[in-house]
Amino acid sequence: MRNFAVFINPGFAGKDEIFTLLFRLREEDKAQNTSGKYLRFFGDCSQTEILREPVQIVDFETTDEFQPIDCILVFGGDGTILKAKELALKTSAPILGINLGYLGFLSESTLPEISASIRDLVAGKYKILSRMLITCTLKRGNVTIHQSEALNDAVVYKGENPGLINARIFAGGRYVFDARCDGMVVSTPTGSTAYSLSAGGPILAPQMRAMVLSPLNPHLLTIRPMVFPAEEKILLKIYKLSQPAWLQMDGSNVCPVEDQDEIHISASPREVKFIKLSKRTFYRILRNKMHLGK
């Protein structure tokens, strides 16, 4: 690996430290490498205002301005990695998360470790793991109002509506149950340690292919989170909604939800790839970062 995309949390105060480090790594590699194939760093034009040397600004929608990207270095927390998902899908490159945030559950490295991490990537000392996405489609009548993919979750929540949401749940075309609640979270295995977990949902190993449906504050105690196989298609039919609710994808509001809307959720045919450098298992990360069992 020698061609890296760089994606940075725009709110990070220490951006100069990142560019200084990348510049030093590139210059050291130039001095030691006589083949001319030295480290190169590229950044998407959407981040033009925060990127500088040694990062070259390109438009990743084109294919003639840069070499194929080997890896995306994402500097930030889990939220930044979720935002870098689109870049990963554009370039088909795996993500290496460098944690600058609080939890950094999806990150594999830290800023002090970045030099060693890039050397491991250049030397081929890594594994690539794939994680599933879900596709969410909001339909109003026969019209598709919104469609997008999520790495973590799709959430329907009541927003400023003081009342509860009424949702009728179907899986694979079969009726499951009705629920009155503040909302619904449908998560991937990756998202099972995020909002879904806060709503009482189970933790799924990230290599699984499944979806977790977790009601938010259901009116009946008999309504519990459920796990569905990735082959199922989940349908939420919203009814008796007095005021608009919201559809949220990976933590961002994307579209208002109205009465009688239908929300279709299924496994996406696409996946996002992540770099695995260390021998730390998923369960060790749970113990260290989420204090599992303590």
Largest sheet: 6 strands, parallel
Uncertain segments:
none
CATH architecture of the largest domain: 3-Layer(aba) Sandwich
CATH superfamily of the largest domain: Probable inorganic polyphosphate/atp-NAD kinase, domain 1
- Number of E-state strands: 18
Tell me the structural class.
alpha/beta
Beta-strand fraction estimate? 35-45%
Which geometry do the CA atoms define? elongated
Identify the strand order in the major beta sheet: 3-2-1-4-5-6
Number of helices: 6
Secondary-structure element series: EHEEEHHEEHEEEEEEHEEEEEEH
Rounded mean pLDDT score: 92
Radius of gyration: 21 Å
Helix content bin? 10-25%
Top-tier CATH class of the largest domain: Alpha Beta
Return the CATH topology of the largest domain: Rossmann fold
Number of domains: 2
Whole-Å distance between the termini?
39 Å
Output the keywords.
294 residues; alpha/beta; Rossmann fold; Tumour Suppressor Smad4; 2 domains; 6-stranded parallel sheet; 6-stranded antiparallel sheet; 6 helices; 18 strands; 18% helix
Please write out the topology.
Layout: E1 3-8, H1 15-32, E2 40-44, E3 55-58, E4 71-76, H2 78-83, H3 85-91, E5 95-99, E6 109-110, H4 114-122, E7 127-140, E8 143-150, E9 153-157, E10 165-171, E11 174-181, E12 183-187, H5 195-198, E13 210-216, E14 226-229, E15 234-239, E16 245-249, E17 252-257, E18 262-276, H6 282-289
Parallel strand pairs: 1-2, 1-4, 2-3, 4-5, 5-6
Antiparallel strand pairs: 7-8, 7-18, 9-12, 9-16, 10-11, 10-15, 12-13, 13-14, 15-18, 16-17
